[in-house]
Amino acid sequence: xxxLAWSFASLSMKDAPLWQSISASSIPMMQDFxxxxxxxxxxxxxxxxxxxxxxxxxxxxxxxxxxxxxxFRPQELSSIAWSFAKxxxxxxxxxxxxxxxxxxxMAEADAHNLSITAWAYSKRSVxxxxxxxxxxxxxISLIDEF
Length: 146
Fold this sequence. Notes:
mainly alpha; 8 helices; 66% helix
């Protein structure tokens, strides 16, 4: 389902019945989605600016328990953070869990992951000092890649 969403989002397809169907079909399966599928689904809906609240809540509740695992890569963490910020959907528990997991995986992040994460938190006017300090330190070591 996430690949279908990603494909239509990449084509900028804004057919409301299609996105409602994708959401309705995804929510019951969301707990079984891999981190990449969760991130792709979030990205897809944010790419076309469809703020489907039940879907976003399902992505959040499916993501949070696994964020402390090494299953979530920096790319997936930054993608989910970006997607929720893009849709202006405030989810404090998810925001805090992503910040914590991102800090723990900062050494694995590339320049793109760092900038996307910083943008996502600044877009929502969220000051998360420990995250920003870690982003700052990691950015210094990758400064030539920006």
